[in-house]
């Protein structure tokens, strides 16, 4: 897959791209609904013998159009590097990442179609039923045939549901924030994951017999709710089982830090891994974080959490 960044001030018709089927969407999460859009585009491309392109946008429109929100405030199911990696799994030939800024947001629907669809040699466009484009989102899948200037065809993918509810990025985010990881994984069609780096923490876990790896996220992932989870962690080419606490360690601290801390107690592992890049995949929620009366009570609970996590992971699906 070739990734191309498109900036409006540099955007011009490019005659080097082959004719392609183009899937459009923001695609945060690349969940099962998004996968249906891309799969539909891929099927059409294969049938027609055309290239497959996927177009997404960055940063999020809220970070550009809302005066109260900046890109630093945004949290994603799939931050841009993660989104690119997930879209690569969808076997596109081209990934177009359009820089979303106020100039781009001010384009009229016809301008967007002319420059970013017709200009890329799209012969067929696929998007979800609720996709919109152009200034104030005035362009829709219903207006797209008019704006196409008879140069491409289109397919609209209907609502993809789970338990009679639409699968959407908003819904996935809600379940992440509620700690409902099994539901998140079902909606994504894969295990939710975050990437980060192991950094030095307070090293308190060593003193109570449960050393932990402190994971600092390297991108703006949306963290699951505060609590304890069964997880797996990928370190230096190997997957390990573990139990993870997301929170503020109230047994030892009265005040909360600005951001919750991710601590993973890794089963059957010993070694110095500071500075290692890691991936944490989330299998299931175990319990909420709580303040214990003593370190001894905390140790007893961690042992129970470890046993619970081991049971969950013993029957878990593969990563």
TrEMBL record:
Catalytic activity: riboflavin + ATP = FMN + ADP + H(+); FMN + ATP + H(+) = FAD + diphosphate
Riboflavin kinase domain location: 187-314
GO biological process: FAD biosynthetic process; FMN biosynthetic process; riboflavin biosynthetic process
Pfam short name (any one): Flavokinase
Keyword Ribonucleoprotein included in the entry's annotation: no
Pathway linked to the protein: Cofactor biosynthesis; FMN biosynthesis; FMN from riboflavin (ATP route): step 1/1; Cofactor biosynthesis; FAD biosynthesis; FAD from FMN: step 1/1
Gene3D superfamilies listed in its UniProt record: HUPs, Riboflavin kinase-like
SUPFAM superfamilies membership: Nucleotidylyl transferase, Riboflavin kinase-like
Annotated InterPro entries: Cyt_trans-like, FAD_synthase, Riboflavin_kinase, Riboflavin_kinase_bac, Riboflavin_kinase_bac/euk, Riboflavin_kinase_dom_sf, Rossmann-like_a/b/a_fold
Entries under CDD domains matching the protein: FAD_synthetase_N (cd02064)
Enzyme Commission number(s) of this protein: 2.7.1.26, 2.7.7.2
Domain of life, source organism: Bacteria
Alphabetically ordered keywords of this record: ATP-binding, FAD, Flavoprotein, FMN, Kinase, Multifunctional enzyme, Nucleotide-binding, Nucleotidyltransferase, Transferase
A Gene Ontology molecular function term of the record: FMN adenylyltransferase activity
Family per record: Belongs to the ribF family.
Protein name: Riboflavin biosynthesis protein
